[in-house]
Amino acid sequence: MRLETWAPYQVQGKDWxxxxxxxxxxxxxxxxxxxxxxxxxxxxxxxxWSPLDVERRLADMKRGSIKQGAYSQLQMGHLRPNPQCSSYxxxxxxxxxxxxxxxxxxxxxxxxxxxxARVVASSLxxxxxxxxxxxxxxxxxxxxxx
Length: 146
Prior knowledge:
- By secondary structure, this protein is mainly α.
- It contains four helices and two strands.
- The chain has helices spanning 16-34, 51-57, 111-123, 134-141, and strands at 10-11, 14-15.
- The mean pLDDT is 81.
């Protein structure tokens, strides 16, 4: 099973370190086609991370994968990243986990962060002040979520 980015590991035969700044400029130009107000004076900071940079900084995200962590039977679904931390709470008091390595997993769906934020708010005795997204409400009404 391949768990890596679809982005090529080389661009036109060159390593990412050689081309990531140019590729970043190209991506920004593409965004500007849809957001013309994204002018140069509105860019505060620019960071060009390539799939290679992601792998260098996060060893469990080989080739820049958005699917962080193992995808084995013992680390799927409600068991992500492991049974002790699968509810966003860790054995360390006050330490929580969220992101691609926890349920419901990677693929940049924002689910882990949304779920973890609810758990953190609850653990602090805070009322959840944000509205539940419509898609989540519909999934609960249909019995897909508790």
